[in-house]
Amino acid sequence: MRAAALPRDARLRRAADFAALRTVSGRLGGRCFLLRFGNNDAGTARLGLAISKRCSKRAVDRNRIKRLAREAFRRARPALPPVDILVMARDSAVGEPGAVLLAELDGLFRRIRPLKREGADGTIVR
């Protein structure tokens, strides 16, 4: 089971990383999830999860959503640019089957593009 785990460098761990994504970042939304993303200097995509008690009071529901989000990220990670991604669940995510949640996350991860860096010329991200 250890081989499927997310490596340490693929996770957001510091509070400052989460705070940076909440203030200056790109946003994508679906019916069940809201994603915030921003460029990073780590050279690889990193995932952060913020599944609050507002989503569900039951820990088993929140843990299920987190497990599915990690699995979708694990699949999409090789194709993602070097960005930090914060996944937040909406209330509607609790009642949906796992396949629906995975499909929505896969679609959102495919739409992620790197943001234009500050001070960069032009409109194309490099």
Please specify the SSE layout and strand pairing.
Elements: H1 15-23, E1 26-29, E2 33-39, E3 46-50, H2 59-76, E4 83-89, H3 98-110
Parallel strand pairs: 3-4
Antiparallel strand pairs: 1-2, 2-4
Helix pairs in contact: 2-3
Structural notes for this entry:
The chain is α+β, with helices and mostly antiparallel strands and 126 residues long. Helices cover 32% and strands 18% of the residues. The chain is built from three helices and four strands. Strand 1 (26-29) and strand 2 (33-39) form a beta hairpin. Helix 2 (59-76) crosses helix 3 (98-110). It is globular, with a radius of gyration of 15 Å.
Task: Tell me, rounded to a whole number, the average pLDDT.
Answer: 88
Largest sheet, in brief, is: 4 strands, mixed
Query: How are the strands ordered across the major sheet?
Result: 1-2-4-3
Termini gap:
37 Å
- Structural class per helix/strand content? alpha+beta
Please mark out the parts with pLDDT under 50 across 5 or more consecutive residues, or reply none. none
What is the strand tally?
A: 4
Number of helices: 3
| Structural shape | globular
